[in-house]
Design a protein that fits this description.
It is a single chain. This protein is α/β, with parallel strands linked by helices. Helix content is about 50%, strand content about 20%. The protein is built from seven helices and seven strands; from the N terminus they run H-E-E-E-H-H-E-E-H-E-E-H-H-H. It starts with a helix and ends in a 5-residue tail after the last helix. About 5% of the residues have low confidence.
Length: about 170
Amino acid sequence: MDALFDELALRQSSATGRRVLTVQGREVVLEKTCGSLADCTFHQLCGSPLGASDYLEMAQHFDTVLIRNVPLLTLELRDAVRRFITLVDNFYDRKVRVVLLAEAPLEALFVHSGKGDIRDRQLLDDLGLRGGAAQHVSLFTAEEEIFAFKRTVSRLLEMQTDAYWTQGDRSHR
């Protein structure tokens, strides 16, 4: 991934360094950027409270985003998974090129254990839901997330094609 960053950075007309984006009065700090290229970790992008407006701002500044250290995505990482899905949706719609360094191939990245996490059980207890009602709510949430992640995997696969990569290159515009 370092070699890819270095190769892509050679095509940029700026130095490698930190970039701070201001989104709705907040600062989003990207530690390693070069022109329209950003090199980030999964935790930086999805493990902190970022949302669609942050990813939209990034898409305006960067045509290529490298994302390192993508873990297996489980329902226990639900908040980070939702952010990842939002990030991919926004980047896909704006033709941002994404390169992942992940713990598993795309098709095996999302792992669904079939069990709800402790937060789900606590919420259902707080709502007084038990038995079939609790199972229906929990399954519905998991099914929605599984569908969204399947769409995300499909988009990420398309984003790796030569055609998408060429469309996303803003250096020729």
